[in-house]
Design brief:
The mean pLDDT is about 90. This protein is mainly α and about 200 residues long. The protein starts with a helix and ends in an 11-residue tail after the last helix. The chain contains ten helices and no strands. Helix content is about 70%, strand content about 0%.
C-alpha cells in the first residue's frame, strides 16, 4: 500500500514537471525566452507559482533540466541498433544516424526552444555529447591505404559536420523527414569529392 502511494506520488511529480516543461517550451516559441516569467509558465501549465518552486528554483533551472533531458538519451540511441555487435562497416552507420534524427524529430520543439534560449549552447551540448560517445563507446578505424589522420581532428570534422546538418535541419523548420536527413548525412560521410569547378573564371 505504501509502495502504491509512493508510485502515485512519483507519477504526479513527473506529470507536474512535464506540464511545466511543455508550458515553458510553448511560451519560449511564442514570445521568446527573455519575455517568459515564472507566473506565465505556472499559469500556462494550470498551476500556481508555489507549485513551480516545489520543482524548480528558477526558469534557468527549468531550462537546464529540458537541456539535460534532451541530451540524456543521445548516446543510448546511437548504440541501440548495434547491441551485441563488435563492429560494422563504415557505410553501415545509417541505423544509428536514423535513431539520432528520430530522437531530435520527436523533441523538435524542445530543440527549437533551447536553440532560441541558449544561443548556440544547444549545438555545443549536442556536439560534446556525440564526442563523448565517440570517445567512450566506439572508435573509427580508417582504411589501410588512408593518409595518416589525427584522430581528434577526424572526430572534430565528422561531429561538426553532423551538428551542422542538424542545425540546418532546424533552420528549415524540420521540413525534411528524419529518414531523409539520416540518408543525406550517411551519403555525405561516405562520399568522396571529385573536383571543384570555379564559377567566376
Amino acid at each position: 500500500m505504501a509502495l502504491e502511494r509512493e508510485e502515485d506520488l512519483n507519477r504526479r511529480v513527473r506529470r507536474t514537471r512535464q506540464a511545466l516543461k511543455t508550458a515553458f517550451v510553448d511560451l519560449i516559441l511564442e514570445k521568446g525566452y527573455e519575455a517568459v516569467t515564472i507566473m506565465d509558465i505556472a499559469e500556462r501549465a494550470d498551476y500556481n507559482r508555489g507549485t513551480f518552486y516545489k520543482h524548480f528554483v528558477s526558469k534557468e533551472d527549468l531550462l537546464r533540466d529540458i537541456h539535460d533531458d534532451f541530451l540524456r538519451n543521445v548516446s543510448e540511441v546511437l548504440l541501440l541498433p548495434y547491441e551485441g555487435m563488435e563492429k560494422i562497416e563504415a557505410t553501415g552507420i545509417y541505423p544509428s544516424t536514423l535513431q539520432l534524427f528520430q530522437h531530435i524529430e520527436q523533441h523538435k520543439r524542445d530543440y527549437l526552444a533551447l536553440s532560441s534560449a541558449q544561443r548556440g549552447k544547444t549545438s555545443v551540448g549536442l556536439y560534446d555529447t556525440l564526442r563523448r560517445s565517440m570517445r567512450e563507446d566506439m572508435h573509427i578505424e580508417m582504411e589501410d591505404n588512408s593518409p595518416p589522420l589525427d584522430y581528434e581532428i577526424l572526430l572534430s570534422y565528422q561531429l561538426s559536420a553532423t551538428v551542422g546538418v542538424i542545425d540546418y535541419w532546424a533552420e528549415t523548420g524540420f521540413k525534411y523527414s528524419a529518414e531523409y536527413m539520416a540518408g543525406q548525412l550517411t551519403a555525405l560521410v561516405n562520399s568522396r569529392m571529385d573536383h571543384i569547378v570555379f564559377k567566376r573564371n
